[in-house]
Amino acid sequence: MEELYANYFNMTIIAGALPSVLRGFLVTVEVALAVIVIGVALGLGLALLRLPGWKLVNGLITAWIELFRTLPQLVILIFLYFALPYAGIRLSPFAATALALGAVLSAFAAEIFTAAIMALPKGQWEAAQSLGFGPVRTLRMIILPQSVRLATPLVTNRIIAVTKGSALGVAVSLNDTLGAAQSYMSITANPSPLMLAAALYLAFFIPLVALSRAIERRMTLS
User: Fold this and answer.
1) Most Cβ neighbours (<10 Å): which of 21, 27, 33, 100?
2) What is the pLDDT of residue 201?
3) Dist CA 153 CA 213 (whole Å)
4) Helices marked H in the chain — which ranges?
5) Contact 46, 108 (CB under 8 A)
6) How far apart (Å, rounded) are the C-alpha atoms in residues 187 and 195?
7) Are 53 and 202 in contact (CB under 8 A)?
8) Are 107 and 64 in contact (CB under 8 A)?
9) Where are the domains of the chain?
10) Average pLDDT over the chain, rounded to an integer
């Protein structure tokens, strides 16, 4: 009887937490999408800026890559949210989380895209030039489509690894899935909302992992 009551009580807690945790889950999805856009776009841009071979630019990009590949994500997030205000720059929890994780993703994406571009035979540049293609047209129509295709499996895997760090946003009071669950748990003194949060994270990331594996298989077979 006591077990039935405990199960009923836990289900009641979960039902009560569901609206707020779902709102937090929406924030998690929005942060993940922002991280993907920032990280992939910036990473591709950095990879393209390395192509001309400018020493100063390449040095700065290499420093960016090493910095954000080395530092823990939480350290970057804490710095953006708590240290930047001393320089007059104040970021919301959402912006700090998205920018921190986006910077980390951009570092890995830049390396992946650079490797994919360098993996293509140099003869493709020469053949395009012989056909009257300029550097920009060659890059846009010949090099980029192939390199993006080569890089997609690795970039997808890295996206999953980095976006899982969105839960770190709770450290700067981001009201995401974990933050909402923790808030409700503190009110009810019951861990059931954390089980709900875990279930929502699984519902979000398992399809992404399955998509990543499908992309890898397709790229391997093609």
Assistant:
1) 100
2) 92
3) 8
4) 2-49, 55-70, 73-78, 93-119, 123-130, 135-138, 144-163, 177-188, 192-221
5) no
6) 16
7) no
8) yes
9) 2-221
10) 87
pTM score above 0.85: yes
- Up-side HSE of residue 131: CA atoms within 13 Å toward CB? 12
Residue indicated by tokens 């933050």: 179
In the structure encoding, which two tokens stand for residue 38, read together? Answer: 């920032």
**Separation of CA 23 from chain center:** 20
Residue 2 has pLDDT above 80, yes or no: no
Q: What pLDDT does 222 receive?
A: 60
Q: Which two tokens stand for residue 1?
A: 């009887």
Task: Spell out the SS3 assignment of 164-217.
Answer: HHHHHHHHHCCCCHHHHHHHHHHHHCCCHHHHHHHHHHHHHHHHHHHHHHHHHH
What is the CATH class of 2-221? mainly alpha
* pLDDT at residue 49, as a whole number: 94
Per-residue pLDDT band at 3 (split at 50, 70, 90):
low
For residue 9, pLDDT over 80 is answered with no
